[in-house]
Structures are given as C-alpha cells and as structure tokens.
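Working notes for the structural subgroup meeting. M.R. asked for a predicted model of this chain before we commit to crystallization trials. I am recording the input and output together here so anyone reviewing the notebook later can reproduce the run.

Input as submitted:
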Amino acid sequence: MKYQILYPEAFPIVECKLQRGEKIQAESDAMIAMSDTIDVEGKMQGEGIGGVLSGLARKFLAGESFFFQELVARRGPGTVLFGHSEPGGILDVELDGSYGLTVQKNGFLAGTEGISIDTKLQNLSQGLLSGEGFFVLNVKGRGTVFISSYGVIHPINLEAGQEVIIDNGHLVAWPDYMNYKIEKASSAGWISSFTSGEGLVCRLRGPGVVLIQTRNPNSFSDWIRSMLPTAQSNSGGSSGITDFFN
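Returned structure, recorded in token form:
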C-alpha cells in the first residue's frame, strides 16, 4: 500500500492506493471517497465475544465508535480518501511491533493491516484528573497508524530522563512504555493552579516522542458556548435566541 497525506497545512486528507486484496481499517465515517473496486464494511476489532466486548469497551468506556470501517480492494487496485471531522492535522506513525502507542480519545483515525486497537485502563488518579476519563486506546502491532488532532500535531522528542509538562487537553499520543503522571500546574498550590487557567497538567519522562495538538477542543467548546445567547424567556414569551435573530 502506498499513501500520502494531502493538504497537510489545513484540513488534510489521506490518499491510500491499495493493491488487490489489501485493506485498511479506519474510524467510522472516515471514508470520503473510494474507487468502485473497493468495498467498505463495518467491522469489530476481533471476532466473536472478544470482538463484541472490545467494541463495547471502545464505545462506552473510551468514547469511540463501536465499529471500524474496513476498506478492502476486492475487485482490483483502487484508491481511498479518508479524513476526520475536526479542523486539525493528520500524522502517520510507523510501528515495528516493539512497543504500542497510547492514544487519547478521538486521536485514532486509521491503521493498516497488522495494527490492533485495545482499550486501556488508566490508574485512578490519571483517569479522574486527566479530563480524558479512565480509558484510553492502546494501538499496537506492525504497520502504519494515522493519528488525528484538533489543530496541528507537534512532536516533542525527549531524551532519556528528560521531562516535559503538557496541558492535558493538548495530549494526543505517546509510546506506551513512557511513564506519566497528573499534577497541579503551579507549585504554589491548587488555588494558584486553577486561577492561572491551567489547573492540571501531565508530566512525561523520556525517552520517547510525545505528540501534542496545538489547539484544545475543550477550550474551543467553552468559547463557542460563551458566544451563544442565553435562552431565557422574556415578558413577551420569546427566548434570548429568538431576540438575537430578530
């Protein structure tokens, strides 16, 4: 399979050229266009009860979709275009099977054959305080993984023993052998941490490459809500939203 990431500066998509019999799995609704030689099906990760449990864990624990898209070049070679719904980057990561990739919610976009995706339980403090929940995705195997983000993906390469502190809303993915912990942003105490606007941050120790996103989707959601008029009834019975458009 050959691929390239098109329009990487803004709203990228991935173009995959599949030979007959090759396939790729992607998040639900990721396919944008495909050749008529390619079939798309909804598939679970794994077969039987194991696949069902894996899908349920992804859906209800990690906040991901129950099914993957499986795109297969059944009737000859063909091309698939896929992307993601958020205005952000796409990065390809090659895994050689020696380690896995821990991926935050909504970070996994697609993977080639040989890649498997499991749901991983964080410890109590990490899940409770990180804002991402108790479960993340663990991507492993041999092949190419496509990671998506909100904003551009920026890699931070850490040497052995080197540490970095990252706002937890900007984390996308990191090698599963790296240790990390959640802590307050300010050494002056909890009040100073929250009044600074940061609150909680993640501390990761190298070696390894940490992938971050340049924008925080939660902060963007808060900004959108702050721009919306308040729906309050006035004496005439109309709402604030109605008044806004009148």
